[in-house]
């Protein structure tokens, strides 16, 4: 017995005949979607019977990915790099430059082969037979290393945007166009802190992409990526925006766009398009446990990338400001403790001595709620805003301190020496009494830690232990009240309602821990 294959066209015609959908999209034709692990392919009922509009959208409002690709594909380039294994592994010593597409530090492949190489995963699993000079890691010769990535042309005279990690440590950079022409590229500059690099090739009259605005992008909007995953040039994948303004570890300056677009090694540096065919981001990273796409991808907002591009083209480098604080999230427990109306803002855990924040009067325990009138919702919003400003720029901070709103003015410093960081949050708080046995700090301990007062946690139990406070931590304050002695701690706890914000010193870092009382 033969099986009749129901094609999308036949399915649409059957649904129209049955009255399930209106003919010619009159009642808003239904969407027939097909998704696979590698690509997202979309077929609309209306697209079968009527042409797409010139704006890149079909008549029923869904994007026509074929039109977007046809208009922009020629402006997306393949980037091949050659460098030494030592240079590409060491980079420029900046932690932010150590990022890879997979964010998986344990991935170990053949020495001298880039993780972006299409055969990297194969040789990582099965080995590279007959390779001379193979030995323990760290004893390999300084051999040539090759890698691949993507980029896109933003100026017809050959200016190209890509990721900084694509060209990090490269001695030779080759750009290949879709018409198979190849050019030797010059790296005008790269910025590891934002992972943006600017290249230049000697050509004119090149096709370019149109840039959009992420402010117009909404969570759930369609987006499309073009790049060279595993070396397969000009591959197209699509999906939706999953979130905006994501902060990732060591990437405090970048409010990432999160999508579910299939991004793999080799897609790095390629463009992310909106439904109108405008570039809204540079594909930069993926979250993975296997080395490949797992549904969570991150792109650098195009406004940030173009700002870095302009600085590099003008001065040869990018500059970022710093405030000189470490911050952490404000959860509901902290909001209750500080008497905030909702859990929003950036909680200041520590202030750099003699830094811009200290000079402005910012203190540990302050909650930054606005910067120059812009609301700070998540803690990552603050370093992202500051990192995109320039050294010497003045900003107005609206902070919440001890139940009152205050306004401070700060002159930002230069982030080239030390970037603002986001403190790691502690475990969730438990219930019950505080549960701390404390002892005074000795004079030599105060000198070693660099504090005037504090109490060492001799034993932690109950809610304090559940909240993540451990033996050996140093208790500095409770709800902003310095912990000079045990009586101060008891008084602060007695005044508290359901939750107290405990500032502790641990391993050279100051962090707030919310402890929920019984």
Describe the fold and architecture:
The protein has 518 residues and is α+β, with helices and mostly antiparallel strands. 19% of the residues lie in helices and 33% in strands. The chain contains 13 helices and 31 strands. The strands form 6 sheets. It has a 7-stranded antiparallel beta sheet. Strands 18, 19, 20, 21, 22, 23 and 25 form a 7-stranded mixed beta sheet that branches. It has a 6-stranded antiparallel beta barrel with strand order 11-12-13-16-15-14. Strand 8 (186-191) and strand 9 (196-200) form a beta hairpin. The radius of gyration is 27 Å and the shape is elongated. It starts with 7 loop residues before the first helix and ends with a strand. The model is unreliable at 1-8, 10-54, 90-108, 125-140 and 424-432 (pLDDT under 50).
User: Could you give the count of β-strands?
Assistant: 31
Helix content range of the residues, please?
10-25%
Low-confidence stretches: 1-8, 10-54, 90-108, 125-140, 424-432
Q: Could you state the oligomeric state of the chains shown?
A: single chain
Helix/sheet category: alpha+beta
Alpha carbon gyration radius? 27 Å
For the termini, the CA-CA separation is: 71 Å
Mean pLDDT: 77
Tally the helices: 13
Strand content: 25-35%
The profile of the biggest β sheet is:
7 strands, antiparallel
What's the overall geometry? elongated
Give the strand order, joined by hyphens, for the main sheet: 7-6-3-4-5-9-8
């Amino acid at each position: 017995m033969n099986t009749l294959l129901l094609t999308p066209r036949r399915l649409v015609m059957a649904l129209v005949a049955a009255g399930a959908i209106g003919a010619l999209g009159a009642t808003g034709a239904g969407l027939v979607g097909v998704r696979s692990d590698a690509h997202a392919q979309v077929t609309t009922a209306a697209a079968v019977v009527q042409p797409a509009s010139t704006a890149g959208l079909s008549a029923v409002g869904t994007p026509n990915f074929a039109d977007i690709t046809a208009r922009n594909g020629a402006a997306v380039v393949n980037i091949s790099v050659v460098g030494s294994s030592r240079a590409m592994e060491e980079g420029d010593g900046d932690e932010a430059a150590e990022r890879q597409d997979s964010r998986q530090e344990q991935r170990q492949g053949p020495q001298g082969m880039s993780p972006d190489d299409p055969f990297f995963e194969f040789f990582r699993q099965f080995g590279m037979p007959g390779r001379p000079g193979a030995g323990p890691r760290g004893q390999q010769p300084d051999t040539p290393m090759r890698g691949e990535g993507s980029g896109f042309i933003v100026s017809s005279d050959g200016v190209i945007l890509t990721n900084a990690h694509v060209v990090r440590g490269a001695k030779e950079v080759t750009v290949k166009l879709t018409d198979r022409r190849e050019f030797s590229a010059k790296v005008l500059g790269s910025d590891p802190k934002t992972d943006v690099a600017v290249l230049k090739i000697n050509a004119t009259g090149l096709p370019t992409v149109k840039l959009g605005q992420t402010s117009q992008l909404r969570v759930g909007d369609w987006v499309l990526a073009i790049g060279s995953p595993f070396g397969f040039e000009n591959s197209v994948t699509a999906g939706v925006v999953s979130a905006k303004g994501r902060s990732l570890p060591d990437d405090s300056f970048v409010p990432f766009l999160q999508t579910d677009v299939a991004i793999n090694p080799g897609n790095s540096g390629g463009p992310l398009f909106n439904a109108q065919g405008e570039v809204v981001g540079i594909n930069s990273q993926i979250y993975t446990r296997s080395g490949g796409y797992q549904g969570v991808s991150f792109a650098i907002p195009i406004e940030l990338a173009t700002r870095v591009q302009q600085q590099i083209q003008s001065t040869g480098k990018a500059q970022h400001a710093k405030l000189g604080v470490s911050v952490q999230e404000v959860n509901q427990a902290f909001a209750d403790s500080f008497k905030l109306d909702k859990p929003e803002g950036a909680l200041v855990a520590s202030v750099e001595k003699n830094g811009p924040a200290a000079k402005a009067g910012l203190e540990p325990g302050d909650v930054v709620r606005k910067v120059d009138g812009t609301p700070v919702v998540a803690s990552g919003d603050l370093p992202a805003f500051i990192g995109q400003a320039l050294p010497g720029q003045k900003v107005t901070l609206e902070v919440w301190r001890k139940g009152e709103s205050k306004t401070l003015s700060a002159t930002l410093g230069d982030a080239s020496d030390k970037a603002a960081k986001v403190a790691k949050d502690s475990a969730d708080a438990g219930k019950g009494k505080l549960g701390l046995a404390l002892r005074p700090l000795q004079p030599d301990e105060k000198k070693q830690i660099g504090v005037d007062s504090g109490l060492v946690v001799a034993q932690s139990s109950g809610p304090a232990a559940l909240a993540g406070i451990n033996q050996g931590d140093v208790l500095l304050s409770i709800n902003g009240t310095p912990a000079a002695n045990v009586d101060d701690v008891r008084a602060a706890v007695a005044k508290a309602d359901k939750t107290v914000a405990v500032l502790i010193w641990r391993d050279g870092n100051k962090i707030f821990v919310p402890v929920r009382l019984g």
